[in-house]
Amino acid sequence: SKPNYILAIESSCDDTSAAIMADNKVLSNIVARQEIHEEYGGVVPELASRAHQQNIVPVVDIALKKAGITKDQLSAIAFTQGPGLMGSLLVGGSFAKSLSLALDIPLVAVNHMHAHILCHFIDEEGYDKPEFPFLAMTISGGHTQIVKVNSFFDLEILGETTDDAVGEAFDKSAKVLGFPYPGGPLIDKYAKEGNPKAFQFTKPKVDGLNFSFSGLKTQILYFIQKNVAINPNFIEENKADICASIQHTIIQILIDKLRLAVKETGIQQIVIGGGVSANSGIRQALKDGEKKYKWKAFIPKFEYTTDNAAMIGIVGYYRFKESLFADSSVVSKARIEF
Ligand code: KG4
Ligand code: ZN
């Protein structure tokens, strides 16, 4: 039988993305990055909304062309309902609503964090799918959570950050080092050449499966300020070692909590998702854990780590199969539960 074609739209933060799914397979996944925020050192919400409005129609057009289908072949439209920046969410949400009305096809509302987890169910050659129940660690610019995933739609948050997200720890450290936003990928890049034990940072003491990153951020700021006062070239001369040490500390914090989660739940399948799961150090540490800690790690394909519409599309597909449609009065939500 012929597949269900689903258009998925993601616009929660600063990337405008559209994907076309044929059931659980990705036919196209187009992401328009908004470079405008680099010079401001962070996402400027007003500029993000405007760029989404500018990009959304061309991005959807390209996604359809690349998939080789027309909009009349679509069975449903999935969009990110939240969490995210309200002005950004409204652009994708309103577009999806209008198009579903025009084409007279169902609308499916998707939770962005749910999508970062279920991206592992996209059908891709060479990628295994986890079995329920499994543990998911979502690590992004806005979230840091450990989630117990019992089934496609039954998810329990076991722990989360009490302050900054892990992506912020990367980006704010990068800012102190003078890197443009978002600096996470640059820390990753320079860390490859450095010694992870060159500088020591203390890990926060946080109970249970919760996280805290604001103390580490302050520690890194003072460490850099102190050293730059002594040697103005400190950053330039030690860039690789500083990045490797920061990244190593963050990875240790994440791995410690994962080990605790495995111990507490007895679940040994672990998936990671969210922008920080693009980090080469955390990807390697997860893999190493298979031997060291006897867990089975699921690492997303690189293009499904940072924000993208294909991950919205896979949740859209599972909701579509269950007829979990949104009604026409659905609203975007800056905060949203599973
Ligand atoms: O999931 P995402 O694209 O957006 C949110 O939902 O927040 O995550 C973006 C975050 C940013 O903080 C970015 O610096 C971080 O992911 N990130 C990385 C890497 N690639 C993206 N952090 C560390 N290493 C990377 N390679
Ligand atoms: Zn995200």
TrEMBL record:
Reactions this protein catalyses: L-threonylcarbamoyladenylate + adenosine(37) in tRNA = N(6)-L-threonylcarbamoyladenosine(37) in tRNA + AMP + H(+)
One Gene Ontology term, aspect cellular component: cytoplasm
Cofactor(s), by name: Fe(2+)
Keyword flag Acyltransferase: yes
A GO term for molecular function: iron ion binding
PANTHER family for the chain: TRNA N6-ADENOSINE THREONYLCARBAMOYLTRANSFERASE (PTHR11735), TRNA N6-ADENOSINE THREONYLCARBAMOYLTRANSFERASE, MITOCHONDRIAL (PTHR11735:SF6)
Signal peptide: none
Record EC number: 2.3.1.234
SUPFAM superfamilies in UniProt: Actin-like ATPase domain
GO annotation, biological process: tRNA threonylcarbamoyladenosine modification
Chief location category: cytoplasm
Originating species: Myroides marinus
Note accompanying the cofactor annotation: Binds 1 Fe(2+) ion per subunit.
Xref: NCBIfam families: gcp_kae1, T6A_TsaD_YgjD
Pfam families reported in the protein's UniProt record: TsaD
InterPro entries recorded: ATPase_NBD, Gcp-like_dom, KAE1/TsaD, Peptidase_M22_CS, TsaD
Keywords: Acyltransferase, Cytoplasm, Iron, Metal-binding, Transferase, tRNA processing
Intracellular or extracellular location(s): Cytoplasm
Enzyme type, top EC level: transferase
Keyword Ion transport set for record: no
Domain Gcp-like per the UniProt entry, residue ranges: 25-313
CDD domains hit by this protein: ASKHA_NBD_TsaD_bac
Positions annotated to bind Fe cation: H112, H116, D307
Protein name: tRNA N6-adenosine threonylcarbamoyltransferase
Similarity comment: family membership: Belongs to the KAE1 / TsaD family.
Function noted in UniProt: Required for the formation of a threonylcarbamoyl group on adenosine at position 37 (t(6)A37) in tRNAs that read codons beginning with adenine. Is involved in the transfer of the threonylcarbamoyl moiety of threonylcarbamoyl-AMP (TC-AMP) to the N6 group of A37, together with TsaE and TsaB. TsaD likely plays a direct catalytic role in this reaction.
